[in-house]
Specification:
Largest sheet: 2 strands, antiparallel
Radius of gyration: 24 Å
Oligomer: single chain
Structural class: mainly alpha
Number of helices: 5
Helix content: 40-55%
Strand content: 5-15%
Order of helices and strands: HHEEHEHEH
């Protein structure tokens, strides 16, 4: 037994695992962002809004913390994910309630911080939108939009492939 020699390779193994893990985060975080760009809803957005939202999805990896963050800085991304108005999914967005009535949306115009006009019926909102369109505004009556769960769908789609890839990369170590 005196001839047994112990070699500690734990530092090299840890370094290799960290290297594999960080590269994996970059690869699959960016794949989730790419999938989100493909998953953006075509319903309820103008072409410009859809393009802006699609182009805004990104992945940022913090190599030191070993964390990948995928998302968008656009407020529109929140609406895309969880819906708005009467269609907002309160079970997934921290209980945030949507408006329970109709309003008029003008395409390309930023939402106002001021309290906007609300309408009790679709007909009232449609009449206002029609009047605004006659004045040259690209106006629409709405009571909200359905959630699309863009990021959730993207993560669910990519997850099995990402797991298999990480398993394959770590099996080949050594």
């Amino acid at each position: 037994m005196a001839n047994v020699e112990f070699h500690d390779f734990s530092a090299q193994v840890k370094q290799e695992l960290e290297s594999i893990g960080v590269a994996w985060l970059h690869t699959w975080g960016n794949e989730i962002a790419a999938q989100a760009k493909r998953t953006v809803s075509t319903v309820g957005w103008t072409n410009g809004e859809r393009t802006a939202l699609r182009d805004s999805y990104d992945c940022v990896v913090d190599d030191a913390q070993k964390v990948a963050r995928v998302g968008t800085s656009l407020e529109q991304g929140f609406w895309e994910e969880f819906g708005t108005g009467e269609h907002a999914d309160t079970s997934k967005n921290g209980g945030r309630e949507g408006r329970k009535d109709w309003w008029v949306y003008v395409a390309g115009q930023e939402p106002s911080d001021k309290e906007s006009t609300h309408y009790q019926t679709r007909e009232e909102a449609e009449a206002v939108a029609t009047s605004m369109r006659a004045e040259g505004f690209d106006a629409y009556a709405t009571n909200g939009r359905d959630p699309n769960y863009t990021l959730e769908k993207s993560f669910i789609t990519v997850k099995p492939k990402a797991i298999r890839d990480l398993e394959n990369k770590t099996k080949g170590m050594g």
